[in-house]
Every structure is written in C-alpha cells, then in structure tokens.
C-alpha cells in the first residue's frame, strides 16, 4: 500500500466512524450519548481535515490526481480546499517533502496516542480508588453497621484526589476532545468530564449528609461511567496503534 492509498484508507475509516455516530444521534434517547456522538463527529472531521491536507499536498508534490471519493468529501465539508487560494494549494505554502509526510503523520498520531493513554490511566485510577468506597457503601447495611460519615469522607478523599487529576488533564486536552470548561455555568468540552463533574459533586454532598443508600447508587453510576470511557479510550488506543503500524509499514515498503 502506498502512502497515498494509506491516507485514503484512513479517511474512509474515519468517515465510517462519523456515519456510525450519526446513526447513534438519530436513534438514541439518551441526551448524554447524543452529545458524546456529536463531539466524536467533530473530532473525526478534524482528523479527516488533517489527513486531507496531507493528501492534497502529497498529490500535488507527486503530480497525482485526487481520487473522486476524496474530492466528494472535500466538496461536502472542506470546499475551501478546492479553491486555488486555499492553504493546500497556495503557491507560497511550504510543501512538506513526500519523504517527510509519514513522519508528520506519526507525530500527529503520537499526540493522540499520548492523550488517550493518559485518559485511560487516569480513569483506571479513579475506578480503583472508587472500589473501597463502593464496597463499604454496599455491605455496611448487610452487616448491620451504622454508616459513619467520617469513614465515607476518608474513602471519598482518595477518590477526589484522582478525580482532580482527571479534571486537570481534561482542561488541557488538545487532540482527543475539546478542553473541559465549567467557568460560565455550563459544562463544555471533554465528554467524559461533562458526565463525571456533576455526579462527583452530588456524591460528595450526599456523603456529607450520610445517606449511604443514595451514595451507593451515585458511586456505582460514577464507576460505570468511568468504565465506559475507559473502554472507549482503550479502543481508541488500539485504533491509533494500528494506524501507526500502517504508516510504518508504508515507510518500509516505500511509496
């Protein structure tokens, strides 16, 4: 597979992801799932844009025609690329030599890989720290124990430390999602944090009240949300690694 074909394959794959998320938006009844798919669509369109930019420059440097399906995607979403004055075609644009294009693609994928790995690790730490709290909340009534607020808050303190690390990371994401922002009274940005933030605040309030039954439900829901996004991060990690191997293969085989 040539590097040109590799780029076409990656663009097709990302476009199929977009179509999948569009179907989810049309069929889901869950607002959070719809919002997550909408954000995923924007992320994948941005990745397509980056690949298309490299694709157009590669075709220009090789004096090769753009394929019809690539032209259709460009016309549908990035029509400015068909303009002779666009950055992709401008005469004063610094064209990356074909030999360096795979390196630039690897650099881009490395940025995605790093952030997905960080998210994966942070979610794992949250889930691990939640386990003692969930266990204590679940078994205390069965053992006839009186729920102690100080015990719950001690266990929660460890969870909160990991959640703050996750929030700090989510405010600085650049590649896998928009940065988390809650400064204007609304939650925006990283999909996982938009779901986690209100739940963690409510859980802390309930623990202060000593309502262990409700706290158990909230803690379980928080753990489930983290686990869901952990699986998603794991899939993105595997997909990104597969892309990296594909590029390395194209480098070894040549153009």
Characterise this structure:
The N and C termini lie close together (8 Å). By secondary structure, this protein is mainly alpha-helical. 29% of the residues are buried. α4 runs antiparallel to α7 (212-253). Helices cover 74% and strands 0% of the residues.
Radius of gyration: 23 Å
Helix content: over 70%
Q: How many helices does DSSP assign?
A: 7
Structural class: mainly alpha
What overall geometry do the principal axes of the alpha carbons give?
elongated
Q: Sheet with the most strands?
A: none
Strand content: under 5%
In oligomeric terms, what are we looking at?
A: single chain
Report low-confidence residues grouped into runs of 5 or more: 85-98
Total number of strands:
0
What is the topological layout?
Elements: H1 3-27, H2 31-62, H3 68-77, H4 101-139, H5 149-170, H6 191-209, H7 212-253
Helix pairs in contact: 1-2, 4-5, 4-7, 5-6, 6-7
In short:
Helix content is 74%, strand content 0%. It is an all-alpha fold.
Task: Based on the model shown, name its key terms.
255 residues, mainly alpha, 7 helices, 0% strand
């Amino acid at each position: 597979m040539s590097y040109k074909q590799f780029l076409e394959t990656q663009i097709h794959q990302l476009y199929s992801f977009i179509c999948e998320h569009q179907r989810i938006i049309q069929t889901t009844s869950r607002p959070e799932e719809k919002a997550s798919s909408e954000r995923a669509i924007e992320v994948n369109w941005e990745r397509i844009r980056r690949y298309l930019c490299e694709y157009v420059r590669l075709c220009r440097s090789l004096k090769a025609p753009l394929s019809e399906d690539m032209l259709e995607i460009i016309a549908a979403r990035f029509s400015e690329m068909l303009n002779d004055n666009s950055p992709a075609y401008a005469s004063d644009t610094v064209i990356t030599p074909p030999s360096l294009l795979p390196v630039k693609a690897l650099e881009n994928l490395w940025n995605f890989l790093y952030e997905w790995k960080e998210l994966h690790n942070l979610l794992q730490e949250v889930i691990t720290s939640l386990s003692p709290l969930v266990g204590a909340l679940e078994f205390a009534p069965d053992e006839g124990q009186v729920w102690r607020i100080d015990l719950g808050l001690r266990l929660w303190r460890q969870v909160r430390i990991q959640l703050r690390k996750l929030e700090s990371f989510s405010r600085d994401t650049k590649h896998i999602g928009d940065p988390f922002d809650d400064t204007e009274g609304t939650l925006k940005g990283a999909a996982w944090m938009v779901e986690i933030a209100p739940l963690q605040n409510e859980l802390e309030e309930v623990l202060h009240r000593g309502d262990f039954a409700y706290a158990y439900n909230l803690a379980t829901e928080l753990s489930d949300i983290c686990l869901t996004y952990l699986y998603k991060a794991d899939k993105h990690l595997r997909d990104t690694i597969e892309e990296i191997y594909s590029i390395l293969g194209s480098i070894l085989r040549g153009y």
